[in-house]
Amino acid sequence: MPGVVIVGMQWGDEGKGKIIDLLTRDASMVVRAQGGNNAGHTVLIGEEEYKLHLIPSGILHENRQCMIGGGTVIDPKVLLEEMQGLIDRGTQLKGRLWISPCAHIIFPYHRVLDRLYESSKGDRAIGTTGRGIGPAYSDKANRIGIRMGEFIRPDLFKKALKSVVEMKNRELVRLYEAEPMDFETIYKEHLELAEKLEPFVSSVELAVDRAIRAEENVLFEGAQGTFLDIGNGTYPFVTSSNTTAGGICTGAGVGPSAITHTLGVIKAYTTRVGNGPLPSEEQFLDPHEAREVGTTTGRVRRMGWFDAVLAREAVRLNGVTSLAVTKLDILDSVESLKICTGYSLDGKLVDEVPTVAEDYARIEPIYEELPGWRSDTHEMKEMSDLPKNAKRYLRRIEQLCGVPISILSVGPDRDQTLILEHLFTQKAASY
Ligand code: IMP
Predict the structure, then answer these.
(1) Residue 103 CA, ligand 1 centroid: distance in Å
(2) 163-212, pLDDT tens digit by residue?
(3) What angle do CA 58, 59, 64 make, to 5 degrees?
(4) Active-site residue identified among 13, 75, 307, 329
(5) How far is CA 61 from CA 29, 33, 65, 170, 175, in A?
(6) What's the maximum distance between 2 C-alpha atoms anywhere in the chain?
(7) What does the pLDDT look like over 80-125, one tens digit per residue?
(8) Taking the CB of residue 47, how many other CB atoms lie within 10 A of it?
(9) Which residue among 21, 41, 61, 190 is the active-site one?
(10) 13, 38, 235, best to mutate for ligand 1 pocket (most atoms within 8 Å of CB)
């Protein structure tokens, strides 16, 4: 039963989009399991650039079934715009894109509250994407969320929305002295959106189970990254879903035995957007030249050196089987590369990320330095083609993480990738 999970090993933006797109060639089904339009993948196919937020990039491959699982939160307007964008470019969606009735809906009050919560948090503000993600997941946990299955049934939807809008208005007006929201306006607008989405709603969970039982190759794509996980990440500077491999199983409605390989995607250095700790932070390259500007919000990403403490923790938290190292080429011009191998906290050596936010500021990264390769790796096709120092850098990463590299990316195009192991068949390729 070949089920491959792809998970980000840092704070998102590891370049999962390209790797997912690549592995989709061997899969018949791709499943998105958590998060919402806080995520963003850029996929480059020839000259065409596709920016996707909710729909699995598998949609760009003919005949692949693409699933949006019950663990996601969906802004219906954004999803429909994304769908229309694909239809306009000739992509067939009918019969290929399916949305779980268990997925939760993001409403306008979630977006408003996201901003109000952020602005009242002071220096504990997270720097969210402002897409209403946290408030939508709060409503899910609070059991007042509206799910896709209810959303597409006008009578049930009306009743549920009326009661929630009343609650939200009490919060907006009394707590934040903000304008109340008009139930009729939201209802009318969303009724139309629900009607358009209805033909795509079906039991994703059942379809995934059938595919796995039929021994088809199923790809589970994680969104965000390990350290944005609500439980295991750098809390409170995290998103509101479980972004690790276990959360992907829950969000897709499968058990862990469905997973045969967990691929951890990790950049050859580290980045993060939004607030929160980044122990190895150093802006050692121009973020525009390094293509470190967000797909979703256009924000410039913070940069840092490769952090092996984080990487090891991500291997452990996800049960990572192998690594996909991305953006090695970005380091082509760097003279000397640092790798963070440990942290010192108040003079004591620590080997894991602290659990209390206040301790992050006192972390001192411990570095080792390796010489750069100062040559172009974009055209490299085999591991043996790589400059000696690039191989040395990668070997050190493998050693520090305790798992092998199975995929290496040296540029944004599909063909700028070295495949060292075929994950669905587990066959090693020229390595
Ligand atoms: P939220 O998910 O919008 O609530 O944002 C919470 C934190 O997660 C913020 O620091 C965001 O910048 C970050 N975040 C959310 N989604 C992504 C992503 O797809 N990539 C990188 N960071 C993300």
Answers:
(1) 19
(2) 999 999 999 999 999 999 999 999 999 999 999 999 999 999 999 999 99
(3) 70
(4) 13
(5) 10, 19, 9, 47, 48
(6) 66
(7) 999 999 999 999 999 999 999 999 999 999 999 999 999 999 988 9
(8) 5
(9) 41
(10) 38
